[in-house]
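agent> call fold_tool(seq_1)
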Amino acid sequence: MIESASKYLSLVALLVGLALVWLRPGQEDLLKVDTVISSLLKYEAKYVEENQPRIAVGYGACKDLFVTGSHMLANVSFPANPDNFMGVGDEDQLVRMYGFFFKAGAAAERFVHGQELWKELLETGLKDTEHRWGLGGNAPVMAARFAREGAKVLLGAKLSPGLAEWLPEGVEVAGGDIESDDVHLIMEYKRNEEWDGVVSPRANRFIIHHDLNNPMVSSLEQFRQALPLFNPQLLVVGGLQMMDNFPFREGERLERILLIRDQMAAMDQDTRVHFEMASFVDESLLSELTEHIIPQADSLGMNEQELPNLHSLLTKGEVTTMADSNPRIAEVLDQMREVYSILSVDKGTNRPVTRIHLHTLAYQAILTAKGSPWKNTGAAAVKSSLTAHRHVCADKEVKPEKSFLIMDDSFSTSKEGGRRVPFINTRPLTCWEEEDLGVNICIAPVLVCAQAVQTAGGGDNISAAGLVVQI
């Protein structure tokens, strides 16, 4: 009897010892991530879109040339005075601006003013042995995601015949043909990449372009003609950051913006309208969009840089240079509430905002008005989270060994008087109602890709994935 008990205790001790070895710090993290993945995948499987929603997406398209930032700036030292500029006027501004955003781990997009400089940069990019081409532009990337999720899509864009072949089945194009597509140069960097002792806190990209078609929203008229017959359930407007710093004739930019406004305002009330924010640096442009475009959208999508920008403009009348690349949940929730409070007021000539989707590296946050037609807010947050990982890792399968979490173990719902919400591995999605504001809010953690393949287009894929389950 004693011998049997001794063997039993020895076996228990052995199992405990093996568990302690197996659950060493790295393995504990892996087990936590595995549990979160399993929980999110089970939730995603409950909300598969079986209908074929009709979604119209504008405007513009381009080819993305992906290159490594280190190749573009080979043998160039980290700038002594990194800074932010409205556009790229010369190589010095490019180096200083790339360094500015590299150090912060923030994404940015800028217009290259000189044709010769642009040609030189393109030639340098094409010499990168790791360069690759991809479908680019907010509208085509979102259209492609919608189509892959089962939607029927109308895309407003001018495309060359070659670029049109890159679109998946289910996407109809209205906008006409062009001989050569605009090109965006995507300068990418990895998480913890080092440049003269300066380490990037996260994987991201700096985008430069010299677009000629997209700033003019040249597909607008043909897209407008196709909309009535297509009869969309959702109109998505994006790509307007291409207007930033483009040399328009006086009054020309506002003229195009007002035409877009009229197109949005002409939509039937049963058709929802979503505006996808982007990297805006020209305060006058963002002011025009805030005055004319945002009031005609009942849904807004944005990242951790764009929310503070819009919030600052609405509350202070100015844009922000750069925000925290990994903001606290309480801070962004307060900003989302304030933006919602301002934009949800029905003034008779606008569409009150009823949905705001914030996508960050660490989490997805979606706010919807109670009683609005937006359904499945929790499912949208989960779908967006998983899509973020799948896109950046370029892998449909979400693997624990390629994932990590940076969302805190608990968060406060507000900086002042908020309640503390614990992070539960088996129930990572958190949703609640706020009666005073009349909204529902859902937060889902993002499984950050440890082996980033691509970051450009992440926001577009994430936002589209969230929308498609809420129509």
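agent> call fold_tool(seq_2)
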Amino acid sequence: MDHEPAPAPKISAWIAEFASWEPDDQNAALNLLVDELPKRTGGFELVSALRRATRHHLRRDFIRLLPEELALKILSYLDVSGLCAAAAVSREWRAVASHNQLWRPFCEAERIKETIVPILRSRRGLRDGLFSDKQAYEQYRLLQRSWCKGPLPPRKEVQAHAGHVITCLLITSHGLVSGSDDKTLRLWDLDTKSEIFTFHGHSGGVWCCAASGDRLISGSTDHTLRVWHLVDHRCEHMLTGHTSTVRCVRLAGDIAVSGSRDATLRVWDIRAGTCLGVLTGHQESVRCLEYDGRIVVSGSYDFTVRVWEPTTCRAIHTLHGHTNRVYSLQFEGSVACSGSLDMTIRVWDINMGVCLHLLHGHQSLTGLMNLSNGVLVSGNSDTTLRVWDVATGRCLHTLHGHTSAVTCLSVNGQYITSCSDDGTVRLWNLRTGQFVRTIADFNDPPPAAGTDHLVVWRVQCSADILACAVGRHNNNHSSMLALMDFLPAPEDAMDIT
């Protein structure tokens, strides 16, 4: 092996003498030497050589050298892309960039602990502590990629409810619940896509349902509600009192509120199976309601929206303004939004009882809405969806693409899933308003001549599952359930960094 030649004795002596000087003298000598070099023949080459020789001595891995607390503080200012770039620098940087403390804010911003982690627990059998915040975020990104890019998962289609109309769909922690005009509800396993149980008991069609924990409540055209246990599948209570079809129901903990075509709302304790009160005041059918455990907001065919205090059964406000039936409601904090057959959406301050904004743009009935974090998504019979800022009343995006009435919508994180009479399910970016892709087209290939085309009546989405109720146009006695599972296989795990 070649060795560098030993320095000449006079150089060694000069180095030894330089090393014996005081630091101030060393600095002064170096400054004089650097100033002198350009004056000599070939001096610039010597300056370049000096720069090359000293470059690696000036490099310092500050992340490796700093205490971990300071290194984490510095990296905490990076976004996800920046953290991934930092992790590629070295093994030491990668170890710091993978710290839970850095990934927790991203998980909290996307509510990953509430959405993705329960899926990993129930469907992958992972226990708390066995996966980090970074791994949870990686699963979130994998799911996003599964929804937005690459091959679509296979579609499982089952003939549900013996060809009757599926009137409601609900994804719960125990599986998918479907309700039908065949007087039953069915519980489906989201892993095997097979039926677990059929709930019998109603003597009329099931029109609505809601769930909390282990309990499911359903409302029917038989004027009753029933409380079911989702684990042992028994009917715990039959709730009577309404004198017409139960059109809508909401559940918060053990308290349910139902709205009926008899123009009343009723408040129920579902564990005791008792009616806690009757809310009267509407003059026509109650079409929609929302309940957050504290306040009830209802919309009616009498053109009004009412705000109630359920513990006292007192009407706090009656909100006038719509000039036709109210078909849809959303409620968040002190703001409620109502959609009407008068083609408008109204934004209300339910504390003050005043209309904050009148939203124009849709050309037909607004029967579908979702309100989350101050952003309202509305679906309309005019084939469009719109995204609104409820604080300003401004329309942020108008989503064009469906060729027939929008029949249902679901918002999951930053994505909107919509379905339509045109037989398609489409995915949109909530923040940008951009069309992402068609998730399903039930009329591709087109139906045979003389056969009605398929329409999608209901859609429900979770972070990993898409569930659709599909039927034939103008044929109310033919329906099926279509399920798509977007959870990537365990072997598809990614390292985001």
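agent> summarizing second result for user.
The first strand starts at residue 155 and ends at 158. The chain has ten helices and 32 strands.
agent> awaiting next instruction.
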